[in-house]
């Protein structure tokens, strides 16, 4: 989805307490910071909420037995111990953080604490705790949820937002349904609008959704179609799955949803039937007249090349060093692969931009992560608005591009977005915690700087297999060999 990005102040809940997370303006050109590496979690598995770190120096202000610092309110994380230093994160109140060092600096009447995984917080906003570091993953998920809450598509053009007026005792004659709850008809909604449900109520016999975290904004439920987020997920690569590169995903030709395998490259009898989007290894290829016509995917098991999307590895971008975590996106196959150095660790199908709103090739870096972000923009001449998109990773502030959840469709493997890379909820969450900058418990935003850049994202195609470095990735020297 290509858009202008608007940071909202999302509401988070911890232990029944409402925490308002304050974010930076998304138009700021902020780079991403690196962080401590950890083994990637299984897809769908939440990172551990307790951080294990070596003991840090204990200033005299902290009593013996202090194991963590509890944030007494939502705080900004600074790159350096200075309140004028660049903000590289936001941590919710009531989170317990580990500290790695202590410093003095302007803008704080107490010491600055270097927190894990990166940055500094002012000691005025912390208190000593004897508990281990820990907090709530943001956005918070209830048990069995794959997205944080309920979402819907507004299906009636021109539907009016209602606001709540405590002074309203009676409804206007043309709007009797608002009488019971004191609702006042407001602005009409235009274009494609997706909303999140924060609460419901019944007024005048009609059900309404509350569609704003803090404001009293309501919509008639009859004007909304509840969305069912996709449960699709990609696959881990490595010894535990037996899968590595090259890899393919079953994608039957035409309108079929299943494909047959055979016992030989040509003929050999039917072996089994595979569902669309099933990952399969590529063990051997069979060519005729210079074209690949079949792949061997097991012992004496072949599948027609026309029935799969194949991802072939290429040389990493010059900016990748050692075991750096990075992402490679092939626009032609709609396949994304996550790497640690030259080791592939995860593969999945995505939805990039349509022909009308294409995703631009290039080598980028993740410059900012947001646990939730609102998206607004134009598709042609039609406006669109998408509420509270979870697990969003911005990689091109100049072009408004991001890796993000698409809770509104299950068409991964087809071009569908306005220019961004759509991910299933499970995949978006996994990648959010895999890449740099690292996001700890309680962090609602993480960004960085030239001194500590985020993970590389390469977007390539057959027409542009070695795309140029774009945006702030160029400032890292990523164009050069071994940079």
Please write out the topology:
Blueprint (H helix, E strand, L loop, with lengths): L3 E3 L4 E4 L2 E4 L47 E4 L3 E4 L8 E5 L4 E2 L1 E5 L8 E4 L4 E3 L3 E4 L20 E5 L5 E5 L18 E6 L3 E6 L1 E5 L2 E5 L6 E4 L3 E3 L8 E2 L10 E4 L7 E5 L7 E6 L3 E3 L2 E5 L2 E8 L2 E4 L3 E4 L13 E6 L4 E6 L2 E7 L12 E4 L2 E12 L2 E15 L4 E5 L15 E3 L1 H10 L8 E5 L8 E5 L23
Parallel strand pairs: 15-34, 29-38, 35-36
Antiparallel strand pairs: 1-33, 2-3, 4-7, 4-11, 5-6, 6-37, 8-9, 9-10, 12-15, 12-19, 13-14, 13-18, 16-17, 17-18, 20-31, 21-24, 21-28, 22-23, 25-26, 26-27, 29-30, 30-31, 32-38, 33-34, 33-37, 34-35
Could you explain the architecture of this structure?
With 483 residues, this protein is mostly beta strands. The protein folds into four domains: 1-47 and 229-238 and 313-483, L,D-transpeptidase catalytic domain-like (Beta Barrel), CATH 2.40.440.10; 50-135, SH3 type barrels, CATH 2.30.30; 150-226, no CATH class; 246-311, SH3 type barrels (Roll). The protein contains one helix and 38 strands. The chain has one helix spanning 425-434, and strands at residues 4-6, 11-14, 17-20, 68-71, 75-78, 87-91, 96-97, 99-103, 112-115, 120-122, 126-129, 150-154, 160-164, 183-188, 192-197, 199-203, 206-210, 217-220, 224-226, 235-236, 247-250, 258-262, 270-275, 279-281, 284-288, 291-298, 301-304, 308-311, 325-330, 335-340, 343-349, 362-365, 368-379, 382-396, 401-405, 421-423, 443-447, 456-460. Strands 1, 5, 6, 12, 15, 19, 33, 34, 35, 36 and 37 form an eleven-stranded mixed beta sheet that branches. A six-stranded mixed beta sheet has the order 20-31-30-29-38-32, covered by helices on one side. Strand 17 (206-210) and strand 18 (217-220) form a beta hairpin. The longest helix has 10 residues, at 425-434. It is globular.
């Amino acid at each position: 989805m290509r858009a202008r990005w608007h940071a909202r102040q999302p509401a988070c809940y911890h232990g029944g307490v409402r925490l308002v997370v304050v974010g930076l303006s998304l138009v700021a050109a902020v780079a991403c910071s690196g962080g401590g590496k950890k083994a990637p979690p299984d897809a769908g598995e939440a990172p551990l909420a307790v951080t294990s770190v070596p003991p840090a120096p204990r200033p005299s202000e902290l009593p013996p037995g202090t194991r963590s610092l509890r944030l007494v309110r939502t705080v900004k994380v600074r790159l350096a111990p200075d309140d004028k230093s660049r903000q590289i994160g936001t941590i919710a109140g009531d989170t317990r953080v580990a500290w790695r060092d202590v410093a003095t600096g302007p803008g704080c009447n107490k010491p600055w604490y270097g927190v894990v995984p990166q940055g500094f917080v002012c000691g005025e906003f912390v208190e000593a705790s004897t508990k281990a570091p820990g907090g709530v993953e943001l956005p918070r998920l209830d048990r069995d949820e794959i997205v944080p809450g309920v979402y819907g598509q507004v299906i009636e053009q021109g539907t009016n937002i209602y606001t709540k007026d405590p002074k309203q005792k009676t409804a206007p004659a043309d709007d009797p349904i608002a009488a019971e709850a004191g609702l006042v008809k407001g602005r009409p909604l235009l274009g494609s609008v997706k909303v999140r449900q924060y609460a419901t109520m019944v007024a005048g016999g009609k059900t309404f959704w509350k569609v704003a975290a803090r404001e009293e904004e309501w919509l008639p439920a009859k004007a909304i179609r509840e969305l069912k987020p996709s449960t699709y997920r990609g696959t881990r690569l490595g010894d535990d799955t037996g899968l590595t590169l090259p890899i393919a995903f079953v994608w039957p030709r035409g309108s079929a949803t299943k494909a047959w395998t055979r016992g030989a490259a040509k003929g050999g009898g039917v072996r089994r039937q595979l569902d669309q989007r099933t990952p399969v290894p590529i063990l051997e290829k069979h060519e005729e007249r210079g074209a690949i016509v079949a792949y061997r995917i097991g012992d004496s098991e072949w599948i027609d090349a026309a029935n799969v999307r194949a991802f072939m590895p290429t040389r990493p971008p010059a900016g990748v060093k050692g075991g750096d975590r990075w992402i490679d996106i092939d626009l032609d196959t709609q396949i994304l692969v996550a790497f640690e150095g030259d080791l592939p660790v995860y593969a999945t199908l995505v939805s990039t931009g349509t022909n009308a709103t294409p995703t631009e090739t290039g080598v980028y870096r993740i410059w900012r992560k947001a646990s939730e972000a609102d998206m607004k923009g134009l598709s042609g001449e039609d406006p669109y608005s998408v509420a509270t998109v979870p697990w969003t990773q911005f990689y091109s502030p100049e072009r408004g591009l991001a890796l993000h959840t698409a809770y509104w469709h299950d068409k991964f493997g087809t071009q569908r977005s306005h220019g961004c890379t759509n991910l299933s909820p499970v995949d978006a969450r996994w990648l959010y915690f895999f890449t740099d900058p690292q996001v700890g418990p309680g962090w609602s935003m993480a960004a960085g700087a030239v001194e500590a850049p985020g993970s590389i994202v390469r977007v390539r195609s057959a027409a542009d297999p070695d795309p140029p470095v774009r945006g702030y990735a160029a400032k890292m020297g990523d164009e050069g060999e071994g940079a």
